[in-house]
Every structure is written in C-alpha cells, then in structure tokens.
Amino acid sequence: MTTLPGGVPAAVLPASQDSPLLDVTNLAVSFSLGSALIARMRNQAHVLHAVDGVDLSIARGEALALVGESGSGKSTLARALSGLQRPDRGEIRLDGKTLPARRSRADQRKIQMVFQDPYSSLNPRLTVGGILHELLRVHHIVPAAEIDSYTRELLRLVGLDEEAVHAYPRQFSGGQRQRVAIARALALRPELLVADEPVSALDVSVQATILNLLQDLRGELGLTLLLISHNLAVVRHLCDRVAVMYLGRIIEIAPTETLFASPRHPYTRGLLAAIPRLTFEPESDVPAVQGDPPSPLRIPAGCRFRTRCPIAQPICEEQDPALTESGSDPAHRAACHFAFADTAPPRATVTAIGATGPTGAGEEAKS
Amino acid sequence: MSQPLLQVSDLHVQIAGRRGIVRAVDGVSLEVPAGEALGLVGESGSGKSMTLRAILGLLPPEARITSGQVLLDGADLTQLGNSQLNKIRGPKIAMIFQEPMSALNPVMRVGSQIAEGPQIHLGLNRRQAAERALELMRRVGIPDPERRFRSFPHEFSGGMRQRVMIAMALSCEPSLILCDEPTTALDVTIQDQILRLLARLCRESGTSLVFVTHDLPVVAQVCHQLAVMYGGQIVERGGVEQVLTEPCHPYTLGLVRSAPDVDHPRSSLVPIPGSPPSLVSPPAGCRFHPRCKFAEEDCTVSQPPLRLIDAGRATACLHFERCLDELRTEGADR
Questions:
Q1: Which chain A residue shows the shortest CA-CA distance from B216?
Q2: How much of chain A is helix, strand and coil, in % rounded to 5?
Q3: d(Cα A359, Cα B266) in Å, to the nearest integer?
Q4: Rounded CA separation B175/B321 (Å)
Q5: In terms of CATH architecture, what is B1-92+176-334?
Q6: Which residue of B262, B263, B291 to mutate against A (max A Cβ within 10 Å)?
Q7: Would the CB atoms of B196 and A285 count as touching at under 8 Å?
Q8: Which residues of chain A lie closer than 8 angstroms to B218, CB-CB?
Q9: Which of A250, B148, B194, B310 is surrounded by the fewest CB atoms within 10 Å?
Q10: Which residues contact B1 (CB under 8 A, 6 or more apart)?
C-alpha cells in the first residue's frame, strides 16, 4: 500500500485490481436555456446537450486526459463526475459501486477536483490552514488532535512551506495557490483526482512546476488522475491515455503514444496538426481544421464532425458512427466510419454536405 | 540598411503605484523593418504589453513614458498629442487586442464597425465604405458576409470576432499592425486558422507586425524576428529560429525548457526557479541573476547591456557561452 510521507495512508487499494476504478456508461448532461415555450414559438432549440452519451473507464493509478475545444463538454463531464452537476442519465460507478445523483459525504470525498483558476477557487477570507481544517473537520479524515499535523504534512507534500498554514490565498503567487488547491483536493484522500485545466492560468515557467508536482504525486501516491486540458503538449507529458471529445461525445480514445503516432479520427488529426510547433518551414495557408465548431444547441445529424470534416461522405450524414475498436489494437477506439478502413476515402470525392460543409470552408481558405 | 519602419529607442514607461514607482518598461529598444514581423515574448509582468501600448499612446492613465523615442517613418510618436495620434491610429498603425469581445463595440453592427475606419481616414462615403467592409470580411474568411454585415459582435464566435478585429485592423491599409496576444483566448484549431490568416494577409500586403505573446511556438508560426523580455527589459534578440534553437540567454533557455514539447516528450520538465523580479526595486546587476544557475559575481555588480554577438543577434548575458555549452553537451548526450 502506498502511503503519504509521514505515514499517512493513501486510499486503500481493493483486492480486485482488474476492474476499472471509474466506469462511466452512457452519461449525458444537458442544460435548458431560457423558456421552453418561447423556444418552441420561435422554433429554436433550447436544450444544450453538453455531454451526450459518454462511456469511459479509468484504471486505478492511470492518468487519463480529456481534450477537446471549448464547448466540447469536457468540463461538464468532469463536473458530473465530481458530483457538481447532476446528469440526465447514465451511470457513474466507482470501484464497482454506483454513485447516486445525490452523494453521501463519503462518496463526495472519493472524487476531488482541482479547478482552473486558483484566484477564484480558494476562499479569500480563510487562511490556508483554515481552508484545510474546515475540510478535515467536516469529513472526519483524521482525529481532531491530528488535524494540524496532517495539514502541515499536506503542505509539505505539495511543496509548500509549513508556515503557509497562517497565510491567506492572496499572499501567494498563482503557482503556489494551485499547490494549495491540490493540497485541498488531496486532503480527503480521494480515489480519483480530477484536474480541470490546472495550469492554463499560469505562466509557462510556473506551469512546469505544477506539472512536475502532479507527476511526482502520481508516482508517490499512485494517484489516479483525470486531466482536462486543451494543451496537447501537457497531455502528452503527463498522461497514459487520451480521450478526444467533440460536441459532447468521445470521438477517439487511445493510449497516448498510439494517439499521437497514428490518430484515426479526422478531428484528432486536425487537432494534432493545429498545435503550433517550433518549426520554421514555410507552411501552407490551409488551416488544419476548417470552420468553427457547430453550436451544441444544434448538433448535426449523423456524424457530428461532418460539417468540418475533410473526408465526409454521404454516409456520414445518415449514420452516427459508434465508437469502435481498432482491429489490431482493442485499446484504440474511434467514432468515424473510415477510422480503421484500409483505404480512407479520397478528399477529392467530397460532396457538398450541408450549407456549412467542407466545400464552403474550402472557399474560405482560397479567398 | 534603409531606415526601419518603426524604431523604438531607450523607451522607459513608469507607473505610479502604491508601493512606489513601477518601472514597467526600462530601456527598451527595438526596430521593425518594413514587411517584417517581430515577436515580443515574456511572462506576465515582463513589460511586453506595456511596450506595445506605449507605441500607440494607449497607456493606462497612471502610466507614462518618461523617456525614449518611438519613431514611425522618422516621426516621434511620443511627442504627439491625442488628436494627432488619432490620425496615426488606423491608417498607419492598427492594433489587434486579446479579447475581441471587449475591444468591439457591443451595440454597433459589425459591418459598420469595419466601415468606420475607412469612412474617417480614407474619406470614403457610406456606400463605398460598406463595400470595402464586405470585401474585407470576405478576405478574412467570414462566411456569408452580406448577412453577417448586419450582425452584432455577440452573435459571433470567438474566432469570428477575432477575424472582425483583423478586418478592422486592415481596413485602412496600415503599414504596421500591433497584436497583443491575439490568439490566447482561442481554441487551438481556431488559433491555427487565425495565425495562418494573419501570416498570409501580412505577407500579401507587406504589412509589418509586432506580435506580443507568452507562447513560444506561436511566435515561430508568424514572426521572423524575436525579442525576449524579462523584468521590463529586452534580454535577447535575434532571428526566431536562432533564438529558439540556440538561446543565448539563460532566461530564454529556461522558457524553452520549461514548456513541454508535443513532439519530443521529456521525462521531466525543468522549471525556472524563483519568481519574477520586482519592478519597483529590481535586483542589482543582471535582473535574472537571482534565478540564474550560470550567475557569477560579476552578474550582480552592474547591469549587462544588450550587446551584439553575431549578425542580428544580441544578448544581455555576460556568460551566454554557457547556454551554448550546455546545449552542446546535452546534444552530445542524446
């Protein structure tokens, strides 16, 4: 069993190592915007399907990344997992046990979250010690007499000085605040740590310290991590497996190296090609992915990526491709009709599909 | 060499703060030749945005230029009043901001906002200006411009709003465009679209760019020249490729090392220790020395000037050879 330094036990490992720690089936979260009646009168959609049927499992000790554009539903999925957002349907099982929509305190503790903005996610009126003490008292993690020593151990664990106990969040820099946020999440000895863009509010040189901390904690505590990020370099650095989301669905999932070496979904290929690199060859003017993502209020019928897809075919308009396994590698799954086909359909045969289809976007590039 | 389009020399900007005078920009000199793109990189608080704003006289009220020159085509912009600057803003120098939503007028139709500049500066009448706006919207890739002309900014996505900003910047055919982190708020796929668009438009029209960002790979996409800022000063300057592949300043080296590289994942990242310097009472000598592993005693004595080490290459590090040595030994290890 792994322990926190100083003999504080981490989450107890169960006997069954094979079953995934977290198992999500058919999870959906939607928001209704405005009045249903007015929307019907104006013939507008008013239900936003932020997460639209997601299946996902995370093994114990694994680091899984969730990537995608804004509006792809990655943060909503994270909030649903942490119990901050009530799902419409679907099941979240942790360690084989279904987590109900209203969670008990013991269940709440098992999935903890680190938020993007360390400036707004810490209570400005409490000292760091106050923040952690409150949490520990409510959840009865350690006996009351040990709260103080446990707090100090936590701060040491995340690389802060013990004296930080007496300081207020405003006295810290962004990177230090994010350390406090990580200490707060770890204080409850969660089974799963969900980090939603933990470094994107930080400067580059500070990002590295937080990324290194997360990596060290994984090694020391055997932490299971769900990392949400739009930065694929961060993802590749930290995670074992990557799930790519697009308009509320996972459209490709694979071990990190497989995904970066041979992405199968055209969206993943575009996403990887769009990363700015330190290369200096004169590049073409054609962007990696054309157009804007459609609004999650009006998800296209059939394949949801077809309006921006360079290889869209008539079948893509008719059939919504399921997330299917690669023949050679069951760990690699993609939701595209042509993901694992021997021959990809040539770009030249692209037919006009929809008003904002690839042909329209092509003109945009030429003009 | 002919006269550069923009020449900033020994610019100082100070902000009166509660704890004393903040030297936000402390002796910055840079040149942008016609048709070139200069990247200005640094972390928050390094003075890069302040430098950019000082060029156009857009400093916040508590900040002021205390000394230095900003020469555009030989004329010193720091000596001009607001009404004279207004004749420069738009037809000579345009600016693209990070947050298009707060830079655009929320209650004015997008087309009218693009047409406003040409009406004022180029003397076009309303119909001519509207036609020009439509043409610009087409050039920046806004689909269905006739319909979108009458839309309001809130009806646009982030990427489309940034295209509107670019159209506005281009509307009076300026010779220089200043960009303040134009893609930081955008998704990676949209960022890719905007960067390519900007690079192509500037190439086609021969417009010069000054591009402020904290993201090194973004600079590599758009710029030819690169200046790295630290603590209100430029610490290294040179061609983009040279500076990023063979950094001659430990701070640049630190920046390159601390960011994960998507194509060459390393086992661990090397952060820059310590934190950025106070701009009220900066450390004596080289401002980077408290965080620098190559620092020697001479670094703490006097401020090392930016000196030329090669054609077009300058560094403010006294021991820049050590950066190169370290890169070389590392290359040998690999």
A1: A278
A2: 35, 20, 45
A3: 40
A4: 38
A5: 3-Layer(aba) Sandwich (3.40)
A6: B262
A7: yes
A8: 276
A9: B310
A10: B33
Residues B15 and B23: their CA atoms lie apart, in Å, by 7
Contact (CB<8Å) A205/B272: yes
Q: Are B218 and A233 in contact (CB under 8 A)?
A: no
Give the span between the Cα atoms of A74 and A246, in whole angstroms. 9
Q: A203, A231, A232, A236: which to substitute to probe chain B, counting the most B Cβ within 10 Å?
A: A203
ipTM of predicted assembly, 2 dp: 0.83
> Residue A28 and residue A9: Cα distance in Å, rounded?
35
pLDDT tens digit sequence for B273-329: 888 888 888 899 999 999 999 999 999 999 999 999 988 899 999 999 999 998 888
CB contact under 8 A, A287 and B270: no
All structural domains of chain A, each given as residue ranges with its CATH number in brackets, are: 61-87+103-246 (3.40.50.300), 280-366 (no CATH)
H/E element, A104: none
Instruction: List CB contacts of B332: < 8 A, sequence separation 6 or more.
Output: none
SS (H, E, C) chain B: CCCCCEEEEEEEEEEEECCEEEEEEEEEEEEECCCCEEEEECCCCCCHHHHHHHHHCCCCCCEEEEEEEEEECCEEHHHCCHHHHHHHECCCEEEECCCHHHHCCCCCCHHHHHHHHHHHHCCCCHHHHHHHHHHHHHHCCCCCHHHHCCCCHHHCCHHHHHHHHHHHHHCCCCCEEEEECCCCCCCHHHHHHHHHHHHHHHHHHCCEEEEEECCHHHHHHHCCEEEEEECCEEEEEEEHHHHHHCCCCHHHHHHHHHCCCCCCCCCCCCCCCCCCCCCCCCCCCCCCHHHCCCCCHHHHCCCCCCEEEECCEEECCCCCHHHHHHHHHHHHHC
Least Cα distance to A296 among A42, A50, A40 occurs for A50
d(CA A13, CA A33): 42
pLDDT (tens digit per residue) in B90-143: 999 999 998 888 899 999 999 999 999 999 999 999 999 999 999 999 999 998
pTM listed for this prediction: 0.84
Four-residue CA torsion sign, B146, B149, B154, B157: positive
